[in-house]
């Protein structure tokens, strides 16, 4: 399994982020995904951090397709590919209406079409073609305007590998699109026992393009923490109910919450609905309290070294090829210790 960490620009002082990626590379971590939600952007940290490591690759985890024009997404991706010496992967996601419409003031309508057309523009730019697309969401050049179709002056290095594109997808249709047009899947809210709800859609999309799941890098992430005994494990589980409740109730609106839908399809429909109901009513404590231990343990890597190793084997056996680790710890030293222990447990 390929190994990765994930960070966000706002998650700590810059010097600590530099130290974190340098130390992670020293432990053997291969990749770093940099998040972009409503904090710092992802491109700037990737450009800076990539200069402090030798082999680690980087990815946007993710650029929201509504936050940049398709051409600007292509420009940013090709710039990062050059700065990193070809060590960049473009991770794209639709996000949701709260962020896209609330933060960026862009309509969220038809995210599937916008995703497909954005990737078309990126591939055109990469190939050195004029950016010309009469799409349903993206029209280049602007009809009846004064512009004309342009090529980007920035091109990939000759002989370099194609830009890997990953899609962060949760809904069945976006999963199918991922299987059809992307090089990899950035998954979240993952329960391996319910993996078929995602993998079947990915496989169906891959089949449309004459491919199979084996052609995709399947990347999943989870928090990892080691407990010395049952009492400590119980405390860890209890502390993480709030985060799940936020995903189920706060990561979207009453009508649109892709995280809630994903957990529902993976066997937790009743819990997801009840937690969301409490959250939307303003009772955050009750929203967390209804989440059972089983759900927390199903979607994280918490426990003894033996139990975490077993969960990682389950991930491997259902087809996950790339694991993002979120190591717990109150200090960097503690997080690095957790990360190192987790890396030692990965299936060979």
What do you see in this structure?
The chain is an alpha/beta fold and 348 residues long. It has two domains: 264 residues, TIM Barrel (Alpha-Beta Barrel), CATH 3.20.20; 59 residues, no CATH class. It contains 14 helices and twelve strands. 43% of the residues are buried. The model has no long low-confidence stretch (mean pLDDT 95).
Largest sheet: 8 strands, parallel, barrel
Query: Looking across the biggest beta sheet, what order are the strands in?
Result: 1-2-3-5-8-9-10-12
Report the helical percentage.
40-55%
CATH architectural type of the largest domain: Alpha-Beta Barrel
Number of domains: 2
SSE order and pairing:
Layout: E1 2-8, H1 14-27, E2 31-35, H2 43-49, E3 57-60, E4 63-64, H3 70-83, E5 88-93, H4 97-102, H5 111-126, E6 133-134, E7 139-140, E8 165-168, H6 172-181, E9 184-186, H7 196-208, E10 217-226, H8 230-239, H9 241-250, H10 258-280, H11 284-289, H12 293-298, E11 301-303, H13 305-318, E12 322-327, H14 332-343
Parallel strand pairs: 1-2, 1-12, 2-3, 3-5, 4-5, 5-8, 8-9, 9-10, 10-11, 10-12
Antiparallel strand pairs: 6-7
Helix pairs in contact: 1-14, 3-5, 6-7, 9-10
């Amino acid at each position: 399994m390929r190994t990765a960490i994930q960070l966000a620009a706002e998650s700590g002082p810059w010097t600590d982020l530099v130290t974190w990626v340098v130390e992670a590379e020293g432990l053997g971590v291969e990749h770093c995904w940099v998040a972009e939600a409503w904090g710092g952007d992802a491109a700037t940290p990737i450009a800076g951090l990539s200069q402090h490591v030798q082999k680690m690759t980087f990815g946007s985890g993710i650029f929201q397709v509504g936050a940049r024009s398709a051409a600007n997404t292509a420009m940013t991706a090709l710039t990062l590919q050059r700065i990193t010496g070809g060590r960049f992967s473009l991770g794209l996601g639709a996000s949701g209406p709260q962020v896209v419409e609330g933060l960026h003031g862009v309509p969220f309508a038809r995210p599937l079409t916008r995703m497909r057309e954005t990737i078309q523009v990126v591939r055109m730019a990469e190939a050195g073609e004029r950016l010309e697309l009469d799409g349903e969401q993206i029209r280049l050049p602007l009809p009846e305007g004064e512009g004309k179709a342009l090529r980007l002056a920035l091109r990939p290095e000759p002989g370099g590998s194609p830009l890997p594109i990953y899609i962060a997808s949760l809904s069945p249709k976006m999963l199918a699109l991922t299987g059809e047009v992307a090089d990899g899947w950035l998954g979240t809210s993952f329960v391996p026992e319910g993996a078929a709800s995602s993998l079947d859609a990915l496989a169906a999309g891959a089949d449309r393009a004459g491919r199979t799941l084996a052609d995709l890098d399947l990347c999943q992430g989870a928090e990892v923490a080691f407990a010395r005994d049952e009492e400590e494990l119980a405390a860890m589980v209890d502390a993480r109910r709030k985060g799940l409740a936020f995903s189920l109730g706060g990561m979207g609106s009453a009508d649109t919450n892709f995280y809630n839908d994903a957990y529902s399809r993976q066997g937790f429909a009743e819990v997801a609905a009840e937690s969301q109901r409490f959250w939307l009513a303003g009772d955050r404590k009750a929203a967390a309290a209804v989440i059972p231990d089983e759900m927390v343990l199903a979607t994280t890597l918490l426990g003894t070294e033996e139990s975490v190793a077993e969960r990682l084997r389950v991930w491997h056996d259902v087809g996950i090829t790339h694991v993002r680790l979120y190591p717990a710890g109150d200090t960097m030293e503690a997080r690095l210790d957790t990360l190192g222990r987790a890396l030692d447990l990965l299936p060979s």
